[in-house]
Design goal:
Elements: E1 2-11, E2 14-24, E3 29-33, H1 40-47, E4 55-60, E5 63-64, H2 70-76, E6 78-81, H3 93-99, H4 107-120, H5 122-125, H6 137-149, E7 155-159, H7 167-182, E8 186-190, H8 194-200, E9 203-208, E10 211-216, H9 225-237
Parallel strand pairs: 3-8, 3-9, 6-7, 7-8
Antiparallel strand pairs: 1-2, 1-4, 4-5, 9-10
Length: 238
């Protein structure tokens, strides 16, 4: 579904992505692992059109996304749940959800999707008129996911969905990710919790210092010393 080839993205003279290549298979869950500063968020923002690539290719099906604006990327069928959720704090839950459909014009379907998502995320239904900034961290994460789903994406990108959340809420978020995937949405997820990510991923990529240093399936991870030491070991210890 998604093919990233030789991607280079820079902040001024500093290259944050140094020729990243990876692929995302349709219908699966793909995880990108790695430490802070590895370039994971830069990768997501470049795919989404928020940052401009200096070189390389991002193909979504047969369409080249490098050079496309973010709204056009969304129209192609990609949605991003950003790191730290970034809900609109002074807008209600319902207003945040409606914002996720701002490129759509099928008003009756938008209203229907909104109600379906409130049913799916029942904690949000109980708070539909509440300001998003007053929600708990876990509730804001669910709202950010639901808001992204309002664009009806084929590919849902999630940047550190477990960040700053209590362990019980993290498990709920990962269950939601699996449910969405079973419903037919392809998932590309950046995550530092390797222990949980590798339980649900069909394929993963390890990024370090702006490069992909390992790619494989969770069954292969025990054979890769650097991954086991840096990620599985630390995840178990926490």
């Amino acid at each position: 579904m998604l093919e990233v080839t030789g991607l280079v993205t820079a902040y001024g003279a500093m290259e944050a992505l140094k020729g990243v290549s990876l692929s995302v298979a349709a219908g699966g869950i793909t995880c990108v692992l790695g430490p802070n500063g590895a370039g994971k968020t830069t990768l997501m923002y470049t795919i989404a059109g928020i940052l401009r690539a200096r070189r390389g290719s991002v193909r979504f099906g047969s369409v080249e996304l490098v050079g496309e604006t973010t709204d056009r990327v969304i129209r192609r069928g990609i949605a991003l749940v950003p790191e730290n959720r970034l809900v609109f704090p002074r807008m209600s839950v319902v207003e945040n959800l409606a914002a996720g459909a701002y490129l759509r014009r099928d008003h009756a379907e938008i209203a229907s999707d909104l109600e379906k998502l409130l049913e799916r995320f029942s904690v949000l239904k109980d708070r539909r008129s509440q300001m998003a900034g007053t929600l708990s961290g876990g509730e804001q994460q669910m709202l950010a996911v639901a808001r992204a789903l309002m664009s009806r994406p084929k590919l849902l990108m999630m940047d550190e969905p477990s960040l700053g959340l209590a362990p019980l809420i993290v498990e709920q978020i990962f269950c939601i990710v699996e449910e969405l995937n079973r419903d037919g949405i392809t998932i590309l997820m950046v995550e530092q919790n390797a222990h949980l990510a590798l339980k649900i991923a069909r394929r993963f990529f390890l990024m370090e210092q702006g490069k992909v240093t390992f790619a494989g399936t969770p069954g292969e991870v025990a054979q890769e010393e650097v991954t086991r030491r840096a990620y599985l070991g630390s995840a178990k210890a926490s």
